[in-house]
Design brief:
159 residues; alpha/beta
Length: 159
């Protein structure tokens, strides 16, 4: 990867992962290696959202369940539709602030900018899956990878 960075010479590198799946993401070492490869700015995106299936499928499910077939809210209950369920979800949700604070501290210590996705996307455990009630266009391609509409939102968060 670093060889590609040295060849491409990007001015900004954005690091994103499902951090809660890693016991040691090696964030400090990764940021240091990128800085050494002459990357001017490194941005670390906080905890991401992963779902059991693509949000578009949940929208269809909710639409079918509603007798009036109204467009569901742009927010999904992550406790119900997220990849984690029951006690596992509540444990992760309880720890999310501590996880993100530790990530923020590590990123800043390494000289990177930290952006919390959960702070932007979620109110309690209701998390955005699309830009608005009128839009049926999901932020996600599948269970966790983003589509262009959310990439645009991410860019706005970083700037």
């Amino acid at each position: 990867m670093l060889d590609l960075v040295r060849i491409a010479k990007p001015s900004v590198v954005v690091l994103s992962a499902i951090w809660q799946f890693y016991s040691d993401p090696g964030l400090t070492a990764t940021v240091a290696a990128l800085k050494e490869a002459s990357v001017g700015r490194v941005v670390v995106l906080g905890l991401g959202l992963t779902r059991k299936k693509a949000p578009a499928r949940f929208v269809l499910q909710l639409w079918r369940e509603d007798p009036l077939h109204r467009m569901p809210s742009p927010r999904l209950d992550y406790g119900r539709f997220g990849v984690f369920e029951g006690a596992e979800f509540h444990e992760l949700w309880r720890k999310r602030e501590a996880i993100e604070n530790a990530m923020r501290k590590s990123a800043q210590h390494a000289g990177a900018q930290f952006v919390s996705l959960l702070q932007f996307l979620c109110k309690q455990n209701d998390c955005l899956m699309r830009a608005s009630s009128e839009s049926g266009e999901s932020f996600y391609i599948d269970t966790g990878r983003i589509r262009l509409p959310f990439a645009i939102v991410r860019i706005a968060l970083i700037e």
